[in-house]
Amino acid sequence: MKPFKIIAAACASLLLTSCFLVPGKFDSELTVLKDGRFSYTYQGEIQAIGMSNLMEGAMEAEDQDFTGQCTDDAGEPRDCTPEETEQQRAANRAENQQMMAMFSAMAPGMNAGDEESIARFVEKLSKQKGWNSVVHKGNGVFEIDYRIDGRADRDFLFPLVEDMPMPVAFVTMVVRKDSTVRVSAPGFRNDGNSSNLGMMGAMASMGEAEGDQAEGDAPPAPPVVTLDGTFRIRTDGEILTNNTEEGPAIDGGMRVLAWRVTPAQTEAPQALIRF
Asked: Which of 9, 58, 118, 162 is buried deepest, with most CB atoms within 10 A?
């Protein structure tokens, strides 16, 4: 499948979200206490990848690398003439532009290559509680300082951005009626079956061609941040289940679960805690 078609298919599977967020280098911690209080912190990189950026780059790459497909009277493949190739290229370009227009109309949103769009995104986050610092470092990568606390009387997820659906949350905390909370961190893994990874692969393959570009070619897709961090859960409650390798450690009277998160991480950190 051509790069643009891959991106378009992945975009559709993500319910046409206008951009999605992925973690880079980070340190994150969730504290759950027996008295029902909780706090969550995330410090480090988050990359916002706009669908428009991804699709525009893929469309340009596909147009430049287009190869016509022709057959002879017997239905056997043959080389296309320059005129035939150009006719097919124009038809493919028109089809992609029509698809791009459809997605843009259904999922308008952040463009990681546009300063005004970035500024609006930073302003949106800065208005929300918990987002204490949001600094754009370039290529849609933001340095984040997020801290929030509250009571575990309702579910919690991070990140949550106003008017922006999140295909995959980094961390979720689901509160159950039996005074337990189930914590899962689906965003802190590399899932070979996820649509996110499919788009990452397409971006990476586009970026690898950067060294082969001729002057005047379309710019490659922005580099994707590397998943590299630590996630911890601290609690004075009872840890019923967890999938760490070492189990809980004791620190200052608190039980601490820790996961080292890298691209090799294929299983989401999980724990069930009674408070």
From this structure: 58
* Cβ pair 59, 261 in contact under 8 A: no
Residue 268 one-letter amino acid: A
Nearest Cα residue to 217 out of 202, 207, 227: 207
Looking at residue 222, its pLDDT comes to: 59
- Identity of the highest mean pLDDT range in 40-44, 67-71, 88-92, 187-191: 40-44
Q: Where are the beta strands (DSSP E) in the chain?
A: 19-32, 37-50, 70-71, 77-78, 131-138, 141-151, 156-158, 171-175, 180-184, 228-235, 238-242, 249-251, 254-261, 270-274
- What's the DSSP call for residue 188? S
Rg value, the chain, Cα:
23
Least confident range of 62-76, 109-123, 174-188, 240-254: 109-123
Q: Helix (H, G, I), strand (E, B), or coil: what is residue 56?
A: helix
How far is Cα of residue 14 from the mean position of the Cα atoms in its chain? Answer: 11
pLDDT tens-digit map of 167-178:
789 999 999 999
C-alpha 185/C-alpha 204 separation (Å) is 24
**DSSP class of 107:** S
- The backbone region for 51, taken as left when phi is positive above 0, alpha when psi lies in -120 to 50, beta otherwise, is alpha
pTM strictly above 0.70: yes
Distance (Å, rounded) from C-alpha 59 to C-alpha 65? 10
The distance in angstroms from the start CA to the end CA of the chain is: 50
CB atoms within 10 A of CB 262: 13
Cα angle for residues 49, 52, 55 (degrees, 5° grid): 95
Which two three-digit tokens encode residue 167? Answer: 């295909």
